[in-house]
């Protein structure tokens, strides 16, 4: 409720006096009546008529001074009333701004406090209106005591209006953070909705351009069509769906439409990339078919020159390689069909599967050749592998003793064990048919264990530093 009194009784606008005063009117009537009297009686009658005879004086007097003071109090109260009314209207707009955006406990508490303050405003406004209606300051026969009482009541009403206005001002100041947040969101609303519309338009244009090149982009078109209901909701506005929800919807539509546009613009390049990968992977499959045929001779040499432990884990490489290449070629055929049907995600997934199969085959085929090369090297000169491992152990021992007189048991134990493992590995080289592959795997294991010790020491010393 805004405290606005009825206009006919507006305290800031006194009622206009209609015609002459009643005292003056009675005097003139008496004078006209005297005209019919005999001349002998006329002079005394006129003298009595203009001597006062109970009528109030036209100027001055205590009642007129009190009337003026009461009227001044009335004007001051009216000014306070309208100032409070204006402030309440402005505050209501702020509250409506907050509630349109914010549903937090703080916002709900602000609404409740505003309603309580509104009831207080209604109360003092009612007191003010009662004071105005109770006293007609335009009465000709207004008594001084009545005017003084009116001045007192109107002054009291003005003071109450002023106190409530101060409460209203303090409440308004406290709304600053909530109002600032709400205004920020409202300021974001229109630009966010416009960005969403522009993003949808741009996505549609990108799809049209792609289709002009002969690419259908059906999945992108379906995703864009799914955004149509979201655009409808955006067009209905925040008044129906709320500011926060509309902002979130606008940002989501912008992101999705932007992603559709980006994918549409990349689609020609994506199609070309799929074509290149098809050619490249098919060429690689053919090369691996050739290399797979070379694995069997390598295995034959390994069987002839080395113990079974050195090659038995490679026995299935030729058969596995042939099967993997066959599976890869089948996936490539399916990828070509998906590409021709413009099922881009399917084509990409099939190419990835074919690539993984070929990678596995490549590693297995390479492992056979690498095994033979490493066994040849260690058979010819095992000392190089031994020295490499001993150097790693000595380097770790120097690091463990740096700045110390005795080694840390946590370092000494694994390093001593590494020395023992190396000696045992070297011992396996004795005899008529050494297990060179076991020797190589043991020395690699020793180096890994030593590297773990070095890494831990450096980490601890780096942390301590």
Span between N and C termini?
72 Å
Helix content: over 70%
Please tell me how large the radius of gyration is: 51 Å
Strand content: under 5%
Mean pLDDT, all residues: 82
| 3D shape | elongated
Instruction: Please state the structural category.
Output: mainly alpha
Count of helical regions: 16
Unreliable stretches: 1-60
The largest pleated sheet is described as:
none
Structurally, the number of domains stands at 4
Helix-strand sequence:
HHHHHHHHHHHHHHHH
Region (Disordered): 1-23
Biased composition (Polar residues): 1-12
Organism: Streptomyces antibioticus
Protein name: Septation ring formation regulator EzrA
Summarize the model shown:
The protein is mostly helical and 465 residues long.
Structural overview:
- With 465 residues, the chain is mostly helical.
- It is built from 16 helices and no strands.
- It has four domains: 7-174, no CATH class; 181-266; 293-378; 381-464.
- It has helices at 22-34, 39-49, 62-101, 105-134, 144-174, 176-212, 218-225, 228-236, 238-241, 243-292, 295-305, 317-340, 344-380, 382-401, 409-427, 436-464.
